[in-house]
């Protein structure tokens, strides 16, 4: 990237971020610019004799996935994911999430364009952990967790788009396809201040699109590898969903209403112990590679982590049902989602709850929302 282009990009990122916390926004801008400077077009990597054959094979695969995303999933055809950057670190960013001791509702950070979101991203792991420690000192339950990719929502396509990253290029084929589909879905639609809607929508796109890729494009070994891991993922998500509901019930119980926090804490401790025991029993039935993929998650599980996971999972069944109602037609589905996005938040949330009678609201003839600007920044 030329120095002039870098200055323009820095200005754009800072303008999108706002001015309430210039130190934080400068690390966001400079961190993203460093990432973009590290990116080179995929054809250059393919011609580089220093690049490994394994990397070249993965990059070629990503370009097939990218073309499939456009041709079969109607996802945007733009510069994103046509370049690759080796970051020489294990994550693209580290997200900080926080929640009270007796609630799964995440603390939010508010931005002029993006609205309020339930996470704060850092390019430096130490800075993320320092933020988490400061929030913990305030009495919140916190986690700083690694994120392999994020979307700038199409804002930076003029400067080269979002690159493929070393933090996820080594994923198995099915997972690699899913992450590309997820991040491109964020460029289709972004609703300011509604993390759950945005992330559940992108997760639905990745699941449906990933299944279609595996069925029509992948070989049998890739399908078998994916089926094994995804089966475990579904088991784990079912367990965490069950535990989230148990915790929600505890935090709204008669003891909580009476502010009998000792009783609430005892119930919470029992619920967390039950969660870890159930996980240990589940894990004991697994074998082979990636058996311990969720060990770290379980070890640091708290209200913040359960609350963050809900953003990615809670509305997915509603989006999947909407896809079926729209005849499994991607443009119709995206149009229906945009109509939902134009509704007041409580109405669109109600419409996506499984079995809710308001679900047909997605087909109402609502005027298409106008988004003069969208925020780019860390987000999975």
Account of the 3D structure:
With 380 residues, the protein is mainly α. It starts with a helix and ends in a 28-residue tail after the last helix. It is globular and about 65 Å long. It has helices at residues 3-17, 22-38, 42-47, 53-73, 125-137, 173-188, 195-216, 220-251, 254-257, 261-284, 295-299, 303-313, 316-325, 330-341, 345-352, and strands spanning 39-41, 83-85, 93-99, 109-111, 115-117, 120-122, 141-147, 164-165. The strands form 3 sheets. The protein has a 3-stranded mixed β-sheet with strand order 1-2-8. It is built from 15 helices and 8 strands. The model is unreliable at 1-20 and 356-380 (pLDDT under 50). Helix 4 (53-73) packs across helix 6 (173-188).
Q: Calculate Rg over CA atoms.
A: 21 Å
Count of β-strands:
8
Fraction in helix: 55-70%
Main beta sheet: 3 strands, mixed
The residue ranges in which pLDDT falls below 50 over 5 or more consecutive positions are 1-20, 356-380
Structural class: mainly alpha
Morphology call: globular
Proportion of residues in extended strands: 5-15%
Taking all residues together, what is the mean pLDDT? 88
Alpha plus pi helix count: 15
Strands side by side in the biggest sheet: 1-2-8
Distance from first to last alpha carbon:
24 Å
Q: Give the SSE string.
A: HHEHHEEEEEHEEHHHHHHHHHH
């Amino acid at each position: 990237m030329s120095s002039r282009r870098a200055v323009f990009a820095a200005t754009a990122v800072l303008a999108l971020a706002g001015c309430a916390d210039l130190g934080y926004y400068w690390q966001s801008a400079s961190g993203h610019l460093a990432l973009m400077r590290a990116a080179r077009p995929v054809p250059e990597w393919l011609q580089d004799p220093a690049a490994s054959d394994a990397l070249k094979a993965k990059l070629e695969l990503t370009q097939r996935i990218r073309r499939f995303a456009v041709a079969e999933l109607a996802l945007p055809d733009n510069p994103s994911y046509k370049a690759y950057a080796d970051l020489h670190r294990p994550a693209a960013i580290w997200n900080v999430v926080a929640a009270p001791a007796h609630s799964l509702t995440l603390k939010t950070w508010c931005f002029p364009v993006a609205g309020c979101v339930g996470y704060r991203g850092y390019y430096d792991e130490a800075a993320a952990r320092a933020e988490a420690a400061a929030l913990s000192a305030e009495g919140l339950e916190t986690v700083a967790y690694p994120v392999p990719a994020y979307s700038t929502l199409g804002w930076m396509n003029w400067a080269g788009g979002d690159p493929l990253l070393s933090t996820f290029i080594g994923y198995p084929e099915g997972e690699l396809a899913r992450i590309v589909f997820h991040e491109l879905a964020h460029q289709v639609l972004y609703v300011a201040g509604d993390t759950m809607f945005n992330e559940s929508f992108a997760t639905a796109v990745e699941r449906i699109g990933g299944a279609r890729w595996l069925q029509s494009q992948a070989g049998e070994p890739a399908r078998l590898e994916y089926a094994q891991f995804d089966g475990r993922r579904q088991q784990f998500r079912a367990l965490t969903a069950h535990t989230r509901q148990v915790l929600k019930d505890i935090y709204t119980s008669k003891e909580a209403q009476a502010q009998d926090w000792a009783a609430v804490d005892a119930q919470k401790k029992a619920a967390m112990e039950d969660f870890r025991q159930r996980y240990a029993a589940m894990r004991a039935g697994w074998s082979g590679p990636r058996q311990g993929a969720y060990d770290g998650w379980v070890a640091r599980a708290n209200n913040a982590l359960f609350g963050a996971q809900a953003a990615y999972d809670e509305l997915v069944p509603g989006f999947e049902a909407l896809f079926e109602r729209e005849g499994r037609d991607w443009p119709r589905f995206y149009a229906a989602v945009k109509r939902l996005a134009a509704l007041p938040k409580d109405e669109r949330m109600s419409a996506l709850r499984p079995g809710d009678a308001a679900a047909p609201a997605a087909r109402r003839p609502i005027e298409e929302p106008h988004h003069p600007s969208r925020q780019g920044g860390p987000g999975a």
